[in-house]
Design goal:
The complex is a heterodimer.
Chain A: E1 3-4, E2 7-8, E3 20-24, E4 32-38, E5 41-52, E6 65-72, H1 87-101, E7 112-122, H2 127-141, E8 151-158, E9 161-164, H3 168-173, E10 176-183, E11 188-192, E12 195-196, H4 200-230
Parallel strand pairs in A: 6-7
Antiparallel strand pairs in A: 1-2, 3-4, 4-5, 5-7, 8-9, 8-10, 10-11, 10-12
Helix pairs in contact in A: 1-2, 2-4
Chain B: E1 5-6, E2 11-14, E3 19-20, E4 24-27, E5 30-33, E6 37-42, E7 45-50, E8 62-70, E9 74-78, E10 85-88, H1 101-104, E11 110-118, E12 124-127, E13 134-136, E14 140-143, H2 149-153, H3 158-167, E15 170-173, E16 178-182, H4 185-200, H5 207-214
Parallel strand pairs in B: 3-7, 10-12
Antiparallel strand pairs in B: 1-6, 2-5, 4-5, 6-7, 8-9, 8-11, 9-10, 11-12, 11-13, 14-16, 15-16
Chain lengths: 235, 217
């Protein structure tokens, strides 16, 4: 039993998020960066660019390329993960790149590439969502023109109940997992994946809940970015 | 007046009464900021002055470049932008024959140049003809965030004049975020510290006073 008296394994309500901590501009060498703690997840995102795309044949004369790299540290999971890109992280890198590309004004920087590096230092379910959320803050911190700051959050089905922001136990034992990335201002969907089984009605309910969660996290993202500049504000 | 820091997607005005300027885009009947910066809402246009970001070359900018590659009739110059710039033989201040380029500028040499051309495909050409252009032979070059350059110069070069007055150093500021400094060692150290402080606190008020205090004014 994962849900008892309306409470989940970690004591949360079905529509409650895990605690989130966001810090912008943590890396000196990167153009923009972000450190994010989301429940048991610890993610570091760095943005480099826009910079010259090399080798030259990958350049696009009409727009900038967006190249996100999702990587899990070997020590981020309980059983040591073999380092380097695997099938899973290559897929996540691809979908993350595409999600981020759709909010960036890529046409302003033809022939360049924007590199985004997402390092998962500690993993506990929902790392792709944490990665996109951190990358969004890092992109804004790097001064890259965007339509909105992208944000992601997962919803799912556990013990027949629709819940927000699954833990690893709920992810493994539950019925379905639905990571969603949106542009919070317009609610445009940037990423939508699903693992498991839900009816159409349940899916709609989960999507709505995930969007609600995203909007809550979007507020934290904005607060984190403003905090970086507030530190030096004099009274 | 409060200085408002805006983020990508922040509402910055109404499209019916204002026009989108730099760092602002229109969607529906509202204007939104596209990047992190300080809001400037004077006159017809709403602008966002960026607080971060890479150098975007504009025609007429004076920049400090590093020679990256030497060809028979041109040089490739790194101008700290996403695009490398070309310096043609004809745009150099020396008279030379085809194939003599390496006699004047070698890989790693530092120059002051003017942006001569930026086309739609973002091909950049620089020229070394004109007033501030030269080859830099001494002093040191420091790099700062290009978005902080206007603050280091200040209104009518006010901040720059303060830096020059109190440190007695030769300072040349390139629009691309590179600064050329020449002076006594301890004065140069102090100057670099002051520039780093300006870079860090560029968005705050009363910075000029704090810099004067720091430089012992």
């Amino acid at each position: 039993m994962l849900i008892k008296d309306g409470k989940r394994v970690d004591g949360r309500k079905p529509d409650e998020l895990r605690p989130i901590k966001i810090e912008a501009g943590v890396l000196y060498r990167a153009d923009g960066s972000c450190y994010l703690e989301w429940g048991g997840n610890k993610v570091l995102a760095a943005v480099y660019g826009p910079r010259e795309a090399l080798p030259r044949h990958i350049q696009d004369p009409t727009k900038a390329l967006v190249n996100a790299r999702y990587n899990m540290a070997s020590f981020s999971v309980e059983e040591r993960k073999r380092p380097g890109p695997d099938r899973r992280s290559i897929e996540i890198s691809k979908v993350t790149s595409e999600a981020l590309e759709s909010v960036i004004f890529t046409e302003l920087f033809p022939r360049t590439v924007i590199d985004i590096s997402i390092e998962v230092l500690d993993a506990e379910a929902g790392t792709r969502c944490a990665g996109i959320t951190a990358a969004g803050v890092a992109l804004a911190d790097a001064g890259i023109p965007m339509r909105d700051i992208p944000v992601a959050c997962a919803a799912g089905k556990v013990d027949g109940t629709i819940v927000l922001d699954l833990t690893s136990e709920e992810d493994q034992e539950g019925d379905a997992d639905l990571p969603v990335a949106i542009a919070p201002r317009t609610e445009e969907i940037l990423l939508l994946q699903m693992d498991g089984h839900m009816t159409y009605k349940e899916f709609e309910e989960a999507l709505e809940l995930a969007i609600k969660g995203c909007k809550e996290i979007a507020k934290l993202q904005r607060k984190a970015l403003l905090n970086k500049y507030k530190a030096f504000e004099v009274g | 007046m409060m200085r408002r820091i805006v983020l990508p997607g922040s509402v910055v005005g109404n499209a019916k009464s204002k026009l989108p300027g730099k760092g602002v885009f229109k969607e529906g009947d509202k204007l939104y900021a596209s990047r992190l910066g300080i809001l400037e809402d004077k006159g017809k246009y709403v602008n966002v002055i960026p607080l971060a970001g890479v150098y975007d070359p504009n025609v007429g900018d004076t920049v400090i470049g590093v020679i990256q590659e030497v060809f028979k009739n041109a040089w490739i110059v790194d101008i700290n932008a996403p695009y490398p710039a070309i310096l043609n033989m004809e745009d150099a201040p020396w008279k030379m024959e085809y194939g003599e380029t390496a006699k004047y500028l070698k890989v790693g040499d530092v120059i002051v140049a003017l942006i001569k051309l930026v086309d739609e495909a973002r091909n950049v050409e620089v020229s070394m003809k004109g007033k501030p252009c030269r080859k830099i032979e001494d002093g040191i070059i420091i790099e700062v965030q290009p978005s902080k350059i206007p603050r280091i110069i200040g209104k009518n070069a006010s901040m720059l004049n303060i830096l020059k007055k109190y440190t007695q150093c030769w300072i040349f500021v390139g629009q691309n975020g590179r600064i050329w400094i020449k002076g006594e060692d301890d004065k140069v150290d102090l100057l670099i510290k002051a520039i780093r402080k300006i870079e860090k606190e560029a968005h705050t008020f009363g910075l000029t006073e704090r810099i004067i205090k720091m430089l012992g004014g």
